[in-house]
Specification:
The protein has helices at residues 10-20, 26-44, 82-91, 138-149, 164-173, 201-206, and strands at 4-6, 50-56, 61-67, 72-78, 96-97, 99-104, 111-117, 126-130, 133-134, 154-162, 178-184, 187-188, 194-195. With 209 residues, the chain is α/β, with parallel strands linked by helices. Strands 1, 4, 5, 6, 7, 8, 9, 10 and 11 form a 9-stranded mixed β-sheet that branches. Strands 2-3 form a two-stranded antiparallel sheet. Strands 12-13 form a two-stranded antiparallel ribbon. Helix 3 links the parallel strand 4 (72-78) and strand 5 (96-97). The longest helix has 19 residues, at 26-44.
């Protein structure tokens, strides 16, 4: 079964509190989502492999540890996932970025694909699928299905707010995918929105509410 990591760091919790506030402006919401994603990336990359390399400092030769060179891909679920990409790229600027376009059918609440584009070497990369919200889990499951269908194997899912129902669904369908969450919420309401949540993340990031 996959690992579920819920962040308790004070900076992350403080910024999550701010994005929950309905009075937070679009500008501030967008910046906060970027900052939270950047902070989460530190922990979610903890298992990246290191290797010893000999270098020369201004004083002497020494052996240091550097990343082994594992290539990384960030795959946002459109459109709200785009809000997290810049934050992750602040930490891993050499990562390639794929895209999965999904929308939620208003009647069935099921995800519908409209776009999917991956780096050609996606099968050789450590992949971070990102989306601010994990509600029913349908979009995350479908997006990871698409990534795996194109050869992706080493996948981590990262989101800001998650409902227990979405976590359970994602673990059931993709038990090999670790899940990193800034805040775990109470439940879904009758409209499949997370409670207390923060509303529609895409609308709040792009100012389309």
């Amino acid at each position: 079964m996959s690992k579920v990591y819920v962040f308790e760091h004070p900076l992350i919790q403080h910024k999550v509190a701010m994005i929950r506030d309905k009075n937070t402006t679009t500008k501030d919401f967008r910046q906060l989502v970027k900052e939270i994603a950047m902070l989460m990336t530190f922990e979610s990359t903890r298992d990246l492999a290191l290797e010893e390399v000999e270098i020369e400092t201004p004083i002497c030769k020494t052996t240091v540890k550097q990343l082994q060179g594992l290539d990384v891909a960030i795959v946002p679920i459109l459109r709200a996932g785009l809000g997290m990409v810049d934050g992750v790229l602040e930490i891993m600027p050499n990562a390639k970025v794929g895209h999965v376009g999904l929308y939620r059918d208003p009647e069935t609440h099921e995800p519908v694909e409209y776009y999917c584009k991956m780096p050609e070497d996606i099968d050789k990369r450590k992949i971070y699928v990102v989306d601010p919200m994990l509600a029913t889990g349908g979009s995350a499951v479908a997006a990871i299905d698409f990534v795996k269908a194109r050869g992706g194997k080493n996948i981590t899912f990262m989101c800001l707010i998650a409902a227990p129902e979405g976590i359970e669904e994602l673990q059931k369908k993709h038990p090999d995918v670790d899940i990193y969450i800034a805040a775990k919420d109470e439940k879904l309401n009758e409209n499949a929105y997370i409670v207390p949540g923060l509303g529609d993340a895409g609308d709040r990031i792009f100012g389309t509410k």
